[in-house]
Amino acid sequence: MKQSRSSSFLINATVIGLVLIWTIPTVGLFITSFRPESAVATSAWWTVLGDLGSLTFANYEEVLFGGDGLANAFLNTLAVSIPAVVIPILIAAFAAYAFAWMKFPGKRILFITVVALLVVPLQISLIPVLQAYVAIDLNGTFLAVWLAHAGFGLALATYLLYNYISQLPREIMESASLDGASHFQTFTRLVLPLSTPALASFAIFQFLWTWNDLLVAQTFLGTDPEVAVLTSRLIGLIGSRGTEWHLLTAGAFVSMVLPVVVFLALQRYFVRGLLAGSVKG
Fold this sequence. Notes:
The protein is mainly α and 281 residues long. The protein has helices at 2-32, 37-42, 58-65, 71-101, 107-116, 123-135, 142-165, 170-178, 183-194, 196-212, 215-220, 230-237, 245-275.
């Protein structure tokens, strides 16, 4: 018993130690975001313990409401991320249900094709998609980046949701069919409510990807302040000489707030959704 307790204490202490080490850079970044430019340039962040009076909100005020403020970029990123999460989830949920519970010609081939798309790097499709957007005068609009994110995320969404939906009890589907429910009614009234963990898990993945994305946004939206997203604007905060670290750290924390809130709100579904289908025989 004593050996078991000592082993448990050692494991807990190791985990706590690793967590503390892992969070040190984040703590340093957070403290730096409240320090004035002169202090950031001349001393390390941990020296703030001897000069707490120097901490200021001026960095956040300049980042959010200054001449190159992030307030508009924050709203633009929100306008990009929400549809880019909702669109692929809706389409993938319908597709996953069809692959799991409907019979139609070529189903197996289509599903294999969807799974195969998971290994295709999105970078190789950027130029062809961009050329198509330019041809129809769609580039530089939110619709362009919504469609791009939806297309790039559909394969993973369909695969994850299929693994979950295909494991729902067959008896539920058969009972719904005997009661005269159509596939659409079964999907909307039974499958969607029961698939909340898988939907939430993919929503977290997709939201974090679209919120933190730079490559797709730069390609299809560009750097116009009217439509630029947070990641694009953060690049400019560092300054032409790479000296504006006090602003960059503040901007980084502004961009972190909403993803953290989304993850905490949906985390109870996260593990359940990730493990869906992992032990399927």
